[in-house]
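Rotation project, supervised by the postdoc (A.L.). Task for the rotation student: set up a whole-complex structure prediction and record inputs and outputs verbatim in this book. Inputs entered:
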Amino acid sequence: MSQKASIKTIAELSGVSVATVSRIINQNGRFSAETEARVRKIMDDLNYYPNTVAKSLRQKHSMVIGIIVPDITNTHFSRLILEIENYLFQYGYSILICNTNEDENLEQRHLDTLISQRVSGILCLTGRRHIIPVNIPVVYLDRRPEGYIEKEDYLVESDNLMGGCLAARSLIESGCRSIGIVYAPTVDINHNMRCEGAAQMITEAGLVPAYIKAQRVSAPIATDAVMDYFKNNPSPDGLVCTNDLLAVGAFLALMELGISVPGKVKITGYDDSPLAGVYSPSLTSIHQDAKAMSKCAADMILKMIDGLPPAKSHEIIPVRLISRETTA
Amino acid sequence: MSQKASIKTIAELSGVSVATVSRIINQNGRFSAETEARVRKIMDDLNYYPNTVAKSLRQKHSMVIGIIVPDITNTHFSRLILEIENYLFQYGYSILICNTNEDENLEQRHLDTLISQRVSGILCLTGRRHIIPVNIPVVYLDRRPEGYIEKEDYLVESDNLMGGCLAARSLIESGCRSIGIVYAPTVDINHNMRCEGAAQMITEAGLVPAYIKAQRVSAPIATDAVMDYFKNNPSPDGLVCTNDLLAVGAFLALMELGISVPGKVKITGYDDSPLAGVYSPSLTSIHQDAKAMSKCAADMILKMIDGLPPAKSHEIIPVRLISRETTA
DNA sequence: TTGAAAGCGCTAACAA
DNA sequence: TTGTTAGCGCTTTCAA
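Outputs recorded:
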C-alpha cells in the first residue's frame, strides 16, 4: 500500500493543524483563502490522496454500494448495472459487484463480505430475500424476492405482466388466432409473469393459449421443443416467447420446418437484447427501461442511506413493445 | 452503517482482550481451544461481523481490486469481469467496477477514487496508460495501452494478430480468392491488429486484401458500407470482419443484395458473441479465451500485490476459430 | 496462552 | 479562522 502523505504530513508541511486540512478537503468552511491556497499547493506537490478508508471508518459508512447479481454476462443485468454505476458515481458512490451464478451459498458468502465491508447499501437482483442482521439498507431490483413482503421490503421491478400482455396483444392485433407461449422453467420468476400476462390477454380475446415448454432457457433447446410441438399439434400462428433466446430458438425451429416467419407464424421475444435488432428477421421484443429501473432503485437506496423513507417502497416500471420484422 | 458489536464488545463479553479476539478471527494461533469456543459463541450471539474497513486502515490495504472498463454492457468485457470476480473472490478480494464510456475525463476521476479507496490493485481494460503516483499495482488487460512500455508495464492481451490470421486463413482454405476486410475506426486498437493479421495472411497467400470501412462499429452502418462497396467494385468472395456486429451488418447487406452466404460470399466475425451461435446463418467467429485472460491477469496482480514480480510482464493469450455456417 | 497499548488516517466536538 | 484531542475498529509489537 503506499501513499506516504497523510493529512498529518500535509498539516505539518503547511504549518496548520490537521483539522484545518480536513476542513479544506471537505470544504467545510472555517478556513481562510490564503490558508487554503497554501495547503492545496502542498497537497499537489505531494500527490496527496485523502484516505477514504480512514474516512469511512471514522464516519461509519463507506460510500460503496454492493450489487448482488446472478450473472453480469447477461445483458439485461449489465445494462442495469451500467446505469446504476453511472448514476451513483455522481453522488460519490462506488460499486462493488458480486456474481452469484444463481448459487445460494456463494450469494450468502458475498453478502457476508458486503456486511463486513460496511457498504452503505445493497442492491440485490438475484430474487433471494435476505435478513440482514445489521442496519444496511437493501433494495431489491428486477426480481421480486421469494418471500417478499409488501410495504416492508423495498422493490423496483419491471412490469413483466404488462410485457406479456403487450406481446400477446401485438400478435392478436396482427391477426393471430392461435397463440403459443414458449417458456422454460427458470429461477427467474419474471418469466412466469410474462406468461401470465400473455395468457390473460389471449384469454380475454376469447382464445386459448397453448403452452410450449423448453427444458431450459437455451436457443437449441427451445428449437427442439418448438419443432416437437409443431410436429404433433395443429400449428399456432403466433408465438409469445418469454425471452429473446427462446424466440430465436423458436424461429430456428420454424425455419427448419419450412414455416415462414412472419408469413405463417409471428413471433415476439422479450428483453430487446442486442441481437433483437440485428437478427434476420429482426425480432419484435419487449424493451425494459433499464435506465428508469436503475435510477429508481438508486434513488431509493440513496434516500434510505440518508435515513429517509423512500416515497414508495414498491415501484413497477413500464415496458414497451418494439415492433420488428417477426410480427410484420 | 450500523453494527453495534465491535471486537471490543466481544472481548468484554467473553472476558478476554481484544488481541485474543483478533487472533481468533484471523486464526493466528496463540489462543486455547476453550477460549476460542467461548469467544465464537459470543460472536454468533451478537451477529458480529469483523469490520473490514478498520482492518484495511490498519493493514494498509483494502482487499479490493478496482477494474476500469469502457463499458460493462459489452459481453467481451463482462465475460472477463465475471471470470476475474469469481477467481479473485476465492482469494478474498472484492471487485470495484468503474465504467468509463470511453471518456478520458471520467476515467481519471474513477482512477482518483480508486487511489483514495486504497484499492490493492487496478485492472485497466480501457487502453489508456496511467501514471499512478502511489504504489498500487496496475495490470492492463485486453487493450494494450497507448504508450505501453514493454518490460515496464504489465499486460495481458488476446492474440488479435493470430485471430485475424485464423479468420483469413479459414476463408482462403475454403477457396476464397478475393477477400475484403470489413473494419471501422475505433479506440479499440485490437481491431487494427485483427486487420493486420488478416492482411498478412491474405498477402502471404498471394492475394490482395480489399478494405471496406464502416464509419462506426455498428451493424446498420456496416450494412451501408458493404452495400456500397459491392455496388461499386468487383465482388469479393470472402469477408473478414473485425467483430461480430460488423459481420452481421455485412451479412444483412449481402442479403439485401441477394448474394447468398456462404454460397457466394463467406463471412467471419470476431468475439464469438452470444449472437454468433444463434444467428441464422450461424456466424463463424474468433473465440477469445476470457477465462485464461482473466486468470492470467488476476494471477499477475495477485503476485504484484504480494510484492513479487510476475513470471512474465506480458502475456498473449491464444484464440481459436469457431467454424459455423457463414463459412460452410 | 494472554494482555496492554500504540497507532493506521481521518472527522468532529470543543475550545480558543 | 484555527487548533487540540478523542475516538472509529482493528492489528501487532512487546511484555508477561
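Student's summary: Residues 6-8, 18-19, 22-23, 25-26, 28, 50-59 of chain A lie near DNA strand C (CB under 10 Å from a C1').
Supervisor addendum: The two ends of chain A are 60 Å apart (CA to CA).
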